[in-house]
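quick one before i forget lol
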Amino acid sequence: MGRLYVLLFFLQIALAAAALISCLSTEEDDIAALPRIAWILIILFFPLIGSIAWFAAGRARTKPRTTWRTGTGFPEKERPRAPDDDPDFLRSLRDRPLPPPPDDPPGPPPRDLPRDLPRDLPRGSAGLPESTEEPDDDQPRR
């Protein structure tokens, strides 16, 4: 039985917190019957009854809100377009002349390298190491 009272206590606190947040965030013109400060005091001093009273009579009945259409909410004619969706932009790209290609490609000029090196070159030429001896297993490799 004690657990039920604890549960009801926490539900009352949650309802009072929701009513207090609702009261504080409601526009001044939308509050009915009493001024805002009176509703806040009623909710704080009588949490259960004040919260129920706020949700039942504290908020003025406004006209029902219209629901949003599906999508972004923008009418199709006023919706901003991305450049790749805009036919005028795409047409301007097609009509724009291409820039002339550069005369010299950027970067260093290509080197003329021989395709086949003769096999009879002495060691040490053409970037080959002087010796091809395998290192001993006892010495660490460099």
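fyi The first helix runs from residue 2 to 25.
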